Amino acid sequence: xxxxxxxxxxxxxxxxxxxxxxxxxxxxxxxxxxxxxxxxxxxxxxxxxxxxxxxxxxxxxxxxxxxxxxxxxxxxxxxxxxxxxxxxxxxxxxxxxxxxxxxxxxxxxxxxxxxxxxxxxxxxxxxxxxxxxxxxxxxxxxxxxxxxxxxxxxxxxxxxxxxxxxxxxxxxxxxxxxxxxxxxxxxxxxxxxxxxxxxxxxxxxxxxxxxxxxxxxxxxxxxxxxxxxxxxxxxxxxxxxxxxxxxxxxxxxxxxxxxxxxxxxxxxxxxxxxxxxxxxxxxxxxxxxxxxxxxxxxxxxxxxxxx
Length: 307
What we know:
Arc Repressor Mutant, subunit A, D-Maltodextrin-Binding Protein, domain 2, 3 domains, 5-stranded mixed beta sheet, 22% strand, globular
């Protein structure tokens, strides 16, 4: 490529480069940066022209950083983090609850929080903007990839502030259409002959998945690595599955069949970096998450499923 022109370097292009490099995918990186794919591609091409060298190689397996790209990635991440901190500092003057707060959690927990009133805060604080990053990928709070994280695994970085906000017990659930069609098993012994829905891939290692897969004489109707797909099939009446907590009952209108006290309760940990915790908006969101996730379920009758 041509001669480098440092004076023409656009630092916003560096931000886009950092997002695409982190995601190893132009579309996902563009979405993270708040752009469409074509705009992100143009930004990266402009940055490569300014530097006079390629940053990515396009291979059959996707994007791969060049040696220069690898060297610049850390710089780009630091610049992106500093830009976010600058934006947050400007929007958080006087300890006001305003500005963007980014929460990283799993897709299923994100759905639970939203259905239980996470967005009530935006009505109470009009200047507050919530960004929920729902993925099984673990974002790095120490690098500013998110302000808060709600996870089932306790983060081990010593610099983070971590507190356990819940311990969730397990129960067997089914959708009302399934119970009407196949009846309501009330114990582990009565699962024989029933259809079950299991998580697959890395999620197959979860204790509840292993437990349900090991029940004698059950018929596996679905295996999926998507929790959202499993919950959808469950609500539609495809079979029985095991879920932690009370979200399935109160939010998805599923039928709680029986408790499973033999399975260890699942902890939920809320983590934040001290720099993020200095913002009033982050502290308010953290407290609201703790309240939302621990709301007690409404008691159900032991009779036939609700309508």
